Amino acid sequence: MSTTFTVAIDHNDDGTYAAGEDITQAVIGLKWRLGMAAPYDPIARVATAQITLRNMNQAFSPELTPLLPGKRVRISSDDGTTTRIHFIGRITHVEPTPGDWGDQLAIIHASDAMRELAQNTVRVEPLVDVRADEAIAAIIEQCEIRYPVLAGYIVLGQADSRVGQKLFGDPLDVDLQQGRSSFAYIGDLWGAGIDADDAIGQLANSERGRFYISRQGQAVFLNRHHTLLQTTPLASFDNNMQGLAYIYGDEVLSEVDVTVVPRTIGDPGGLLWSLAQPQRLPRNDARRIVARYRDADDNPIGALSLDTVAFTAKATATGGADLTAQVDVAVLEAGISAAVLEVRNFSEQEAYLHTLDLFGTPLMIADPLTLQHSNRYNLTLYGKQALELYLPALSDIGEADQIARYELVRRQQPRGAVRQVDLNARFHVQQALARTLFERISLSDTQTGHSGDYFIVGEEHHVEQGGYRHRVRWLLEPAEDDRFFIIGQHKPDGTRYPMY
């Protein structure tokens, strides 16, 4: 039986895709991609989809027929036995072709939740001795992400709106494996805030794990042991791929440099931040300040606690009557890298905030420390080839040493590797539909003499002619379980290295 692809838009924001929301009959082409941009990347790039449609009746001309950005769109397939979701995201924009005598087409562009994570700036409260999964959960909790169900909610002051303010529950479903490393301090290097995807990427990289959004729209974190424990291929291909990108020897290394950031804890009651110059406060008004912690030499520091806030206010920028009693400073957020303060002037006259000092327990950031491991044999035979890893979540030089050894062992010998494989779904329909990110497959190619197991780390689909033509491209990463063993999980055999 042929495969049927279905595209639906949740127009009424109720979290379902009713029959009236199915736009499949208008679809003439689909293209979507999700997963990592390159092998070994710690975090996926934004997943995107392009849906090309017939638009003769102007159903996809948003100025004539409402089709708002933010609506949830789903691509699924049915092979007669199994229905599968391939992509869930939100519409970012629509491109209808203009002109009465033009192509009369429209392209809907959509992206997954990674795009929304990238739009959020995050700071965190002091996170001490936490795993990557715990810190990632705290980051996602801070993010403002569009809820999947908005029907039934209203916003006061917005006529006929069906959107709620800050709704209850979690807008993003998560599946976070427990990390293997415990990080001493998280977030003290993030200043006034960094993009949520950058923050998550730092954590995934320091764990040597992976973070991505799945086909079902779920945020997934895999720890560094995950791929070593998935030892059974779910599909095999023997000289029957449509295309293969193969390369030999590009990964061999002669040096690995791992940079970590040591920290020390200062004395309680230390100065965390001080107002640089007087600030005007209009009468009966409030100002919000993001105070990035710095030491007396203006170097960035963190804070394990914010204990005391001291301030003075006067009538003019140069002095005058004392108005401190008419001013209040409230701590809205006591983060590990910065504090968010609200300064309010309750009086009927203008005031100036002259001094504002924050005191607490400082977390001093030392100069970065780089650990280097080299392979003189590789340097002699293959030349200089270095890998540099900056892992700011790490402060333990011992763990940095383990990471450097792991990376050097993983890439110590030249070998052949398949970077990507192309399939024609007519000949591999079940595998093209079913296989997805971080599933293991086996490949064999006579021309190159290569065979090996790989994990899919990126998937790209092109569907045309109602699903009759379906091309798939998988980005691949070599399986490493033949090189390493996990203590307590595998038995040493004398040929593999321990994975911490």
How would you sum up this structure, described in words?
The chain has 500 residues and is mainly β. The chain has 4 domains: 4-8 and 20-116, Thrombin, subunit H (Beta Barrel), CATH 2.40.10; 225-250 and 415-500, Elongation Factor Tu (Ef-tu), domain 3; 255-262 and 367-411, no CATH class; 264-365, Distorted Sandwich (Deoxyuridine 5'-Triphosphate Nucleotidohydrolase, Chain A). It has helices spanning 113-118, 132-142, 196-207, 226-229, 376-382, 397-410, 429-434; strands at residues 4-9, 27-35, 48-54, 72-78, 83-96, 105-111, 121-122, 127-131, 174-176, 182-186, 194-195, 210-213, 219-222, 235-238, 243-248, 255-260, 263-265, 270-274, 279-281, 285-292, 302-314, 327-334, 338-345, 351-365, 369-374, 386-390, 416-424, 440-445, 450-464, 469-478, 484-486, 497-499. Strands 1, 2, 3, 4, 5, 6, 14, 15, 27, 28, 29 and 30 form a 12-stranded mixed sheet that branches. Strands 17, 18, 19, 21 and 24 form a 5-stranded antiparallel sheet that branches. The chain has a 3-stranded mixed sheet with strand order 9-13-12, covered by helices on one side. Helix 2 (132-142) runs antiparallel to helix 3. It is flat, with a radius of gyration of 27 Å.
Judging by the overall fold, what is the CATH architecture of the largest domain?
Beta Barrel
Taking all residues together, what is the mean pLDDT?
90
Number of helices: 7
- How many E strands? 32
- Examine the coordinates and then state which fold CATH places here, giving the name of the CATH topology of the largest domain: Elongation Factor Tu (Ef-tu), domain 3
* Rg calc: 27 Å
